[in-house]
Amino acid sequence: MQALPRIVRAMVACVLLAWCGAQSNVPRAADAPMEFSDPAQEQRYQELLSELRCLVCQNQTLADSHADLAQDLREEIHTRVLQGQGKDEIIAYLVARYGDFVRYRPPLTAGTLLLWLGPFLLLAAAFVILFRIARSRRIAAEALTVEEQARVRALLEDPDRH
């Protein structure tokens, strides 16, 4: 009988955790649209939001994320755009502070070489493996003697015969 209250407590805990997790993805009131003095500033701001990664969500841009850190970064970018900083200056500031990971498309450097070349290396390895498998099967098929080939043909023609 004591197990029932534990199950109920566990279920309540799960519901509360799920609710808290759902609340973290709800946009905050602070996600109101930003004000700009000219359309060029707004365009620069939107470009930056689509090129920079949310450090919390990791697979979302700053434009798509509702995390608190993403909101803070959007406000920082907004402030810097209003101050007249260029796109490259703002990206350089964020990279200096958070590293290349903040960029959705990191530059090609020694540290990111495997990231850029990895898919091509995996594809090349897959082709090599497929080539070797096909070659080994062809060699194995050619390795049958004349008697074995005749027996295989006989088995294929009359499967009841052993």
Produce a short descriptive summary:
The chain is mainly alpha-helical. The protein has six helices and no strands.
Report on the architecture of this protein:
With 162 residues, the chain is mostly helical. It has 2 domains: 3-102, Helicase, Ruva Protein, domain 3 (Orthogonal Bundle), CATH 1.10.8.640; 113-157. It contains 6 helices and no strands.
Helix and strand arrangement:
Layout lengths: L2 H22 L14 H13 L16 H15 L4 H12 L14 H30 L3 H12 L5
Give the key terms.
162 residues; mainly alpha; Helicase, Ruva Protein, domain 3; 6 helices; elongated
Spatial shape:
elongated
**Uncertain ranges:** 24-30
Share of β-strand residues: under 5%
**Average pLDDT level:** 80
Q: Note the total helix count.
A: 6
Report the CATH C-level class of the largest domain.
Mainly Alpha
Number of DSSP E strands = 0
Report the helical percentage: 55-70%
Q: Please give the domain count.
A: 2
Largest sheet report? none
CATH topology of the largest domain: Helicase, Ruva Protein, domain 3
**Second CATH tier, the architecture of the largest domain:** Orthogonal Bundle
H and E string: HHHHHH
Q: What would you call the structural class?
A: mainly alpha
CATH level-four homologous superfamily name of the largest domain: Cytochrome C biogenesis protein
N-end to C-end Cα span: 65 Å
Radius of gyration: 30 Å
